[in-house]
Amino acid sequence: MSEKTPLIEADRGQDAKAIHLVNSDGFSEWAKSLTGTQRAVLEAQKFTGGGYQVGIVPDDDGWFAVGGVANPKSLSSWCLAKLAEELPAGTYRLAEDEIDKGVAPALFGWITAQYRFDRYTKDDDATDPRIFLTKQVSAIDTAVIEAEAELLVRDLINTPAEDMGPAALEEEAERLAKRYSASLEVTRGDTLEQNYPMIHAVGRAAARHHAPRLLHLTWGKETDPIIAVVGKGVCFDSGGLDVKSASGMMLMKKDMGGAAHAIALAQLIMEAKLPVRLHLLVPAVENAISGNSFRPGDVLKSRKGITVEIGNTDAEGRLILGDALTRASEEKPELLIDFATLTGAARVALGPDFPALMTRKDETAEDLIKAGREHDDAPWRMPLPEAYAEWLKSDIADTNNAHGNSYAGASVAGLFLDKFVGEGIEWAHFDTFGWRPFPKPGRSKGGAAYGLRAAYHMLRARYATN
């Protein structure tokens, strides 16, 4: 996002245009306070108080804005987003102090609505920012750091693979390490092949400047509870020798979306100074095609010692995650969370808006779903049925990486990952799309975070101190 001007500021009486929030039920009563001319102007704009409607009303020598919301007394993350997208550049505040008292959730959407991905082109339609003033000063920092994390995910996913390969993900990890005084260890080359053989196998066919690696960032006091966050970093997925179709490859720059989520969650944890010992692990690869590509029918060793027969080279994300989850488990974390753009089956089941969530414990799922609902980012739980584990059986290895039928693809992928998570570790797996195919207020088309705020607020509920 190019603009660096703060989009939310403390209200200290600066000049600003007023915004009135109404809903369709209360619009008629509210409109009685307007002049006939003002009501006629709104009628001409077909404004009725419906959700996401925006109106401009003349007022003496100036004007004020009016926005339609579901409930002015209970604002969501997106209540102000359409206003932030459509109003002229300038400075704004809510007209009613009582509504401003509950504005905190909507500050996030005010910022995200103004996102533009302009790395490669000048946006001739871009405008100066819309700045929002609020008296809820304590809510500003929270909204800003959460929005920054959301926009980081968007930027990373939207960037094409040539400029967002494994080396670029390493640069992002270096940025985090420098900003938060964290330690970063990068494993590549022969050391990667010896210690993380599945990560190496998946990434070995890529060009040298996209060579595979494992990024491992650590932060926090060693005496604090250990939390591990893992993200699938397949920076481009051709499908390998089980090559995808042209249409299937079109969005594969987003296959590192899990890594983007994991990096953003790590940023949130460190920015909030949560009292945890954080381990962030990102296996970063490109699943390319060359003479040394791993093949269907090959048997790969893993860091854990499990041997894996390759039933499909396009089921590569679970392979690199297997080695990373094994390494994360060696730290004996009390909670391990992974994010991955893992299966098309999850999208068929849930569409793009809901990340599939799989957990070992009911309590883990309940905590994440509760946090997500409270912050407009709810995941949807899917099962890990042991009855389907037999579908991963191999005749020549400990397991296959893909099953031979079309059923329960997301759950079977989750069962594969479960083999590599240490015994007794509380674990949550997000199978996320990482992409918004259709824009909504505050949520642009393109790279998108799903489950990020759910995970962050679940961690805050567990670990934040006053």
TrEMBL record:
GO molecular function: manganese ion binding; metalloaminopeptidase activity
Tree of life domain: Bacteria
UniProt keywords, alphabetically: Aminopeptidase, Hydrolase, Manganese, Protease
GO CC aspect terms: cytoplasm
Domain Cytosol aminopeptidase, residue spans: 312-319
Membrane spanning residue stretches: none
UniProt xrefs under Gene3D superfamilies: Leucine Aminopeptidase, subunit E, domain 1 (3.40.220.10), Zn peptidases (3.40.630.10)
Gene Ontology process terms (BP): proteolysis
Family: Belongs to the peptidase M17 family.
Protein name: Leucyl aminopeptidase family protein
